[in-house]
Amino acid sequence: MAATLPAAGPAAAADPQRLTVDLSASEGPVMLGANGALYGLSDDGVPSDAALEPLKVTSVSQKPEGGAQHPNGDALTVSKSFFRNGGGEINVMMQDVYAKWPYEDLGIDDYLPKVDKIAKEVAADPNSERFVYIPFNEPDQIWYKLGVADQAQYEANRDRFFKDWKTVYQRIRAIDPDARIAGPNEAAYHSRLLKDFLAFAKRENVLPQVMTWHELGSGSLRDFQAHYDDYRALEREAGIAPLKINIDEYANRRDLSVPGQLVQWVSMFERNKVYANMAYWDAAGNLSGQVVRSNIPNGGWWLFRWYAGMTGDTVKVTPAQPNTIDTLQGLASLDTGRRQAQVLLGGSAGDSDVVVRNVPRSVFGRTVTATVAEAAWSGYEGQHATPQVLARTKVKVAEDGSVTVPLRGMRKMSAYRIVLTPGGTGTPSPVSVPWSASYEAESAAITDGKVYTQGTVENANGYAASGTKDVGSLNQATSKVDFTVTVPRDGAYDLAILYGNQSGGPATQKLSVDGAEAATVTYPSTENWTYRAKRDVTVQLAAGTHVLTLAKGDAEVTLDRVDLTAREGALSASYEATLADIGGNPSYDYSSSAGVGTGALVLRSGDKAVFDVYAPRDGYFTVVPRATAAVRLALHGETVTAAPGRPLRLYLVAGNNRVTVTAQHAAVRSLDVSGSGSSSGALAYEGGAAVLKGGAELVDSVHASDGSYIGRLGNSPDSTAEFTVRAPSSGRYLLVVHYAHNDRRDNGHAYNTDIMSRTADITVGNAAPVKVTFKNTWSPDDYWTVGVPVELRKGSNKVTFGNATAWAPDIDRIELGRVVDRP
What we know:
Layout lengths: L16 E13 L6 E3 L10 H4 L6 E4 L12 H10 L4 E5 L14 H17 L6 E4 L16 H25 L4 E7 L4 H13 L6 E6 L4 H19 L5 E7 L8 H13 L3 E4 L12 E2 L3 E2 L1 H10 L4 E6 L10 E7 L4 E7 L3 E8 L3 H4 L2 E9 L12 E9 L6 E8 L4 E8 L13 E5 L4 E3 L2 E4 L15 E4 L7 E8 L3 E11 L5 E7 L5 E5 L9 E9 L2 E9 L4 E10 L5 E5 L4 E3 L3 E3 L10 E5 L3 E8 L3 E9 L3 E5 L2 E5 L5 E5 L2 E8 L2 E14 L4 E4 L4 E3 L3 E4 L7 E4 L2 E14 L3 E10 L17 E7 L5 E5 L9 E9 L2 E13 L2 E9 L5
Parallel strand pairs: 1-15, 2-3, 2-9, 3-4, 4-5, 5-6, 6-7, 7-8, 8-9
Antiparallel strand pairs: 1-12, 10-11, 12-13, 13-14, 14-19, 15-18, 16-17, 16-19, 20-30, 21-24, 22-23, 24-29, 25-28, 25-30, 26-27, 26-29, 31-41, 32-35, 33-34, 34-41, 35-40, 36-39, 36-41, 37-38, 37-40, 42-52, 43-46, 44-45, 46-51, 47-50, 47-52, 48-49, 48-51
C-alpha cells in the first residue's frame, strides 16, 4: 500500500473520500469502552499478561464460577490476571451456570438457589465491587420470548419476565447490598420492551445500574446510532438519569480480527461513550479473536493497542457516509498536555483525504510531524509484526488551521493510524517501505480446487476472508494453485500465506517456483478450515514474472491470499517513546523532529516508559535505546543499564514483550529492535534428556523435534520430568517450553469450540513451584511455546515439571536463554 503525505496545499487525488476531524470539538475524555470481550479470558495466563495489559481492557464478560455452559472462563478465576493487568470490571453472565444452549428452562425456583450461590461467591471476593451481575441473557429469545409480535402474548411474557427480574434483583441485593446489576440484556434492541422495562424498574425500585443489550448484526453499523438515541430519549421520557451502557456482545465473525471492520464498531461506541464487549463466536481466551496462541499479536490486537494509546479527549469525526455499513469510519483524540492528536480509521479501500481542522497553534506551532502506520489483517490466528510506518513527514499548518493527510491505495481490511505532533526543527528520517504485492487465491490458476465465499454483509457470521473468497477442496493428488507474480529486483522475498488447516494436525503443501524442485511448507493446525492463520516463508526470486505453485502435500489446506514483500536487510522496528505507555510524570520534548520524528520523552526519577516490542520467535534480538543519557531497561524480571546508543542483546519471547525504560534524567527518542531471534548462546534440551518418573514416558512422534516427546506427564504427585541444565553464569533466564495438547470438552452445543488449557508446576532447584498455563494447541502434534522467567545459578540446575492433580501438557523440548546476554 502506498501512503503519501502532502506539502502545504490541496491533496492531489481527484476524488478521494474525505474524513474530517475537528480538534476544537471535544466529545469528552477518551473512555476506551469498546475494547471488551465476552469470554476474552479463559484461564489465568490465557491470554498472557504481556498480551492483555497493553490493551487497557475496561470490561469483560465471563461465566460464574463453576458454570456449566463452558469448560473455562470462570469470572473469579480469570479476575486474578484481569485485575493485575489493569482490567476494569467483569460482567458475570449468571445464566451461564446452565449447561445447555439455549439455557434449559427449569423455572425460576430452580434458578434462585443458583443465583444465591453466585452472589455469595462474588460478594466474598476481595474485588467484589469490580463485578457486575447480569441475571438474564437474551431474554427476548430465551425463556421469555419478549420479541413476539402479538401484543397480548408479548404483555404476558413481559409481565412474567418483569416479575422474575424483580425477584432475582432483590435476591442479589439481599446477599450483596452494594451489587451492581445489569440488564435487561436483549439479543437485539427492542424499543417497546425498554420503554416498559424502564417504567417498571423505576416504579419497583429495581433499575439496573448498567443498561445492556446486544448488537450482533452487520446492520448494527447502520442502526446503532438510532438505537442509542432512542434509548436515551426513553430515559428522558421516564425521568431517569442516564445509565451507563454496555453493549456486552457486538460484532460478527467477519469483523473479529479484522482491523478495518473493528474500527467501524469502535468508533461508534467510543463516540457515544458506551462500553462494549466483542462477541464470543469461537474459542475463549483470545480476546474474541485478537490474540494468536497466548501471547502473539494479530492485526486486530494492534488496532486495540493503538486505541489503548489514545489519550486526552476524543474529538468530532465526520466521515463521508455516517452510519453506513462497511464504509470509511474513524475516531480521533487530542491530548493538549502531551501535544498529540491521533486518528484511527479504516473500513474502505481506495483513496482518502483525512482533513484535520482547527489544529491549535498554541499546542502544535506552525508545523506538525504527521506519522502514518497500517495495521493489516493477518487472520484470526496469524501473527502481525509491529505495524509498518508508511510515511513520516513534516507538514506546514495551513492558514485556516488545517492539515490534510492523503492516504492512497488503502486496503479495506486494514486500519490506519495518523499521529500529529509538533514539527520543531530538523527533518524526520525518511521512511523505507519495502516493495510488496498481494495475490488472491481465487484469482490464481486453480487445479482441482473450489472457490468458496466466506463472511459477507449477507452472511455476517461467516469467517473473514480476504476479498470474501478463498480456495478450498484442495484434496486431490493433483490439486494446486498457481500464482503469477512479478517482482522488481533479484533477491529474497518474504512470502506470507494466509491459510486454513482443517486436518486435525500439521499439513503440508509443495512450494515451487517456475516448476523447479519443490520445497515443503508445513502449516500448523487451525480451529477449522476458515479460521485463518498465516505462514511465513522466504523465497529467492529474480526480477521479472514467475509462477509460484502451492500443490497438495500431506492432508488438506485452504488458501486465501499470498503476500510477497521484498526483504531489505535484518528485520527491525523503532518504537517511538512519545507513543509508549508512561508512568510518573514525564515531559514531552518536540524541539526536534529528526529521527523517528515524533520527538522525545523526557524521563526523570520516578518516571517510566513501557514499550510493546514484537518478536517473531523466541530468541536473542539487538535492542538499542536512543537516549541522551544512560537508561535502565527492565524485561522479564531482569534490569540492565545501557549507555546512549549502546546495543544490548536481549532474549525475547515470541509475540509481545513489555520493556520498561527508566532514567535519572534522559530524553528518550525510541527503542530500536532488530534481528530475527538468534538461538546462539541459548541452552537447548530435548525431551529425551529428562529423567522421567511415575508413568511419564517418551512417546515417538514424527512431529517432535527429536522424534519423541514427553507424554503421560502429571495426574499424580509421582509423575515428573526432571531436566538437568548447566548454566554458564548465574542470573535471570527465559525458560521456553515447547509443548502440545488438545484437551476439549463437548458441552453438547457446537456454537463454540470448547478448548481447554493444561497446567504444569515448574520447579527450579529448591525454589517454590510455579504453576504455568498452557493453552490448547488445536492438535496433539502442533508444538507451541510458552516463556517462563526463572533464576539459575552457575553450573548444574534441576528443572522439574509435574502436575499432581491433572495431566500436564506433552513436552517436546526446552530452551533457556539469559535474559540479558552479558559479555
